[in-house]
Amino acid sequence: MTFPDPVAQARHLTQRFVSNGVPLDDLHTITGSLDDWPSWYAAWERMGDTQLAHAADAERAGATLTAAELRLIAALEFHFGKFLFVHDQGALRAGTAKSALAYRQALPHLPWPGRIVDVPHAGGTLPGVFRAPHGPGPWPAIVLVPGLDAAKEELHLFSEVFLRRGMATFVVDGPGQGESEFDSRLPSAWEDVAASVLATLTGIAGVDPGRIAIVGVSLGGYYAARAAASTPGLRAGVSLGGCYSMAQAWPSLAFLSRQAFQVRTGAADEPAALANAEEFSLAGHPPERDIPFLVVHGERDRLFDLTQARRLTEHFGDRARLVLEPEGNHVLHNLGYRVRPLVADWVLRLLGALPVAA
Amino acid sequence: MTFPDPVAQARHLTQRFVSNGVPLDDLHTITGSLDDWPSWYAAWERMGDTQLAHAADAERAGATLTAAELRLIAALEFHFGKFLFVHDQGALRAGTAKSALAYRQALPHLPWPGRIVDVPHAGGTLPGVFRAPHGPGPWPAIVLVPGLDAAKEELHLFSEVFLRRGMATFVVDGPGQGESEFDSRLPSAWEDVAASVLATLTGIAGVDPGRIAIVGVSLGGYYAARAAASTPGLRAGVSLGGCYSMAQAWPSLAFLSRQAFQVRTGAADEPAALANAEEFSLAGHPPERDIPFLVVHGERDRLFDLTQARRLTEHFGDRARLVLEPEGNHVLHNLGYRVRPLVADWVLRLLGALPVAA
What are the recorded GO MF terms, alphabetically (chains A, B) (predicted)? Predict the structure, then answer.
């Protein structure tokens, strides 16, 4: 196996870590203690454990919100410790369990408190996090879909961009993602997952079943496109840094991403993973519904190039809109402060809660 | 004049910029366009203008919150463009005006909307920003005091740590600070400023006049100590990275800080500035009231060393508490995510709104 230099990896992903809630100082400490790639998980776990200790101190002092904020940080650190650690299933399981536990303990006490809602799907359940905006319902609602190596914990701050604008959010660990990755594999289709999620989400009091959209990041952008194209009940879809075809993107994927895709799709080796990647495509799955779809893509995306964004947009025809950001990287983490509101505002206009622009 | 290398300056202050709301990507762009120190303001102003253009786009699309979020970023960028630019009063005035305007336009539309409340003081007025927490009053309230080169705009995100915990906040440009720096000089005493602020703050509906504390950062920590020690109506005080004596700190101050102190205290030259610094001391001003005071200080603070923190703490005797953070830098910007909640929780326990620790 050809592991990457962990310090270069940390630098490369700085914007992703920070824009999703890892304190810059923690990232510097973690990076400073990295040795080789196998040391990555331990470095992040130590930092997460430190945050949990601070959280326990805060809790003893009666500071419930502070404890929750620190547990959210710990959850993110455990998550980023294990997110690409598929070669070490022991660490992957330990990190996933610690991340999920810290997050579940934090959720009820954070701003816009969250609650875990399990989605019955394919004989099992998928854990989702439901959060409601301030103010009375019925609320429009957004289904948020993580990518190949993300999980519901990582989308916590992104979901607040919608919450601040009056939308409820539901972030789900789909099959093969986060807590679900040990019992299921990443599917190439997401229509049935979306149907299960919608069945659960529309049953939550306060959610307006007529105003639901789906937003996915990275591989989740592909999933959002699959779902928007054919799952009844969705009013709009967004891909943020998503792809049209995993096989087309394969040559530009880093080793760790290929390995994660291989393991999470249950492929025995890389050729089998590439064969799986052929299935992850919108080709042959034309939209069954006339649905607005937004594609937001960074021109500096080194994983999914502009061809992917253009095909994804063309897939939805006249009702699609493509926003290209010349300086944006993969998933536009570097421009998250500006692009995430852009996504939320676009969705909200479609769902009828903002005045439409002249 | 011996100007610093602007890129080194930007790196040195990264945590301060980011922890107060400058997007990391903007900071990278700004740093990449720096030439010499005189180019600093223009680089920040360009970025702020870009954010204002994005804000105008958002506003045209009906996205009021997004426009406000972008204007807050612009306000911070204009602020950090001019915060140490005392050698160029034209840029200093332009940046101050642009920062204040963008901030004033943003304030009513941001979470915990703010409103400008002018504080009558010494024949003029000092602009303050009042923000109230969610939920019904009467609320405890925190007076937040900027330092030598900060301004009310820079404390916007810090104030939200208090707002999330149910406290109202009032951030003021004191004499010689921010918008007030052209009409007044930095005073060595702040007791009378605090009295003026309290007179205004206690007149705002919803503020509990019996539960007001003062929190200052850097030189504002010294001001908080002056005020807490003798201004009636304050229940507690906090210094975050503050000092006991500016003259003692003088040798470790950077050129730009000395220059800013000289100009903002109205000294003709550096010896006169040092003479002014002798006045900025708690020596000879023992507390007239028995008041709890918290000193939070970073052991890696290169401007104000540990002696300053220890003397500040001893000044308040038995009711003082000193929290030292071994890894903290000046004002603990690198640990803001953890230290700011610690400050807010400490104040809130004293003001009687959190269960007291066992």
Answer: hydrolase activity
